[in-house]
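can u do me a favor
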């Protein structure tokens, strides 16, 4: 009878867990990269229009946070 990974003491990997990347701007977990500089960036720091990080984006769009008045 063969042993399973759990019985053998091998670490279990959760396939639903996000990879261990962090935003190069704020340090939050990220799953995307800037198409210009290829740095990891979170959704808050990737432009929806050009897919560049906020450091590289040249769009005229300004994202307002919930704390700033509109």
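np, heres the sequence
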């Amino acid at each position: 009878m063969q042993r399973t990974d759990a019985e053998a003491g091998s670490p279990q990997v959760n396939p639903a867990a996000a990879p261990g990347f962090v935003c190069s701007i704020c340090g939050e977990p990220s799953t995307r990269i800037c198409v210009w500089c290829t740095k990891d960036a979170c959704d808050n720091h990737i432009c929806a229009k050009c897919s560049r990080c906020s450091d590289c984006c040249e769009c005229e769009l300004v994202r307002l946070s919930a704390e700033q008045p509109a």
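The CA atoms of residues 23 and 41 lie 4 Å apart. hope that helps!!
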